[in-house]
Amino acid sequence: MAKPARKLREGEALSCDAGVEARLVRRDAGDGLWLVELRAGGERADLAAATVLELLEAAGTMPLPPYIERDATAEDGERYQTIYARAPGAVAAPTAGLHLTEELLDALTERGVELARVTLHVGAGTFLPVAADRVEDHRMHSERFEVSEKAAEAVRACRARGGRVVPIGTTSARVLEARAELDPAYERPVVRAGAGSTDIFLRPGHGPRVCDGLFTNFHLPKSTLVMLVASFVGTEEVRALYRKAVEEGYRFYSY
User: Which band of pLDDT confidence, cut at 50, 70 and 90, is reported for residue 30?
Assistant: First the structure.
């Protein structure tokens, strides 16, 4: 994501902090995003063999939401992150999980709530509004995910004993629904292990098949995330919830 994008040209090289150079390869007209090649500048021989993630770590800063009108600090690197994050790859924190602490997870476990961990790398397309006149014409972004056999089995066992599957955040919901499969051995679709990318678009009329609830923040109007929530409870219920939140002065942002 580049700003101001109109002044940029393919082939140009931008100098970043810490001696890292970003060469603009091409722009995706559909999403307005640039494909960028990162490499070490001449004065940083120590980064010559660095990976993309290592170059980002050297030159980048924590990408705070735009409503945080200050530069990121070292404290943000810990606070703007879930306590259970492990694999690097997301462009932003899955913010529903910011509400959870180690103490809260321990308390849930003591009450018999079983936890299963999945991975979905939040992509830049998450923040794109729906611009199509018809919702079904919206081109959904793709995000990388991984569901281990241990996690898939935990979800299947929960459903088999009559428990409820409640993902923490829209990211977790997308992963589970992307891995939902029909199986003649079960009455309802089940979650299967796997890794890859998903462009699943959960919306009214195309709702969840394996998730029984959802723990989530508020989301921006005209976003696919609002539509995902509506796929669980219905459009009118979502409108009523947001109306109530506005009337009561709820805080909408997540950090």
Answer: low
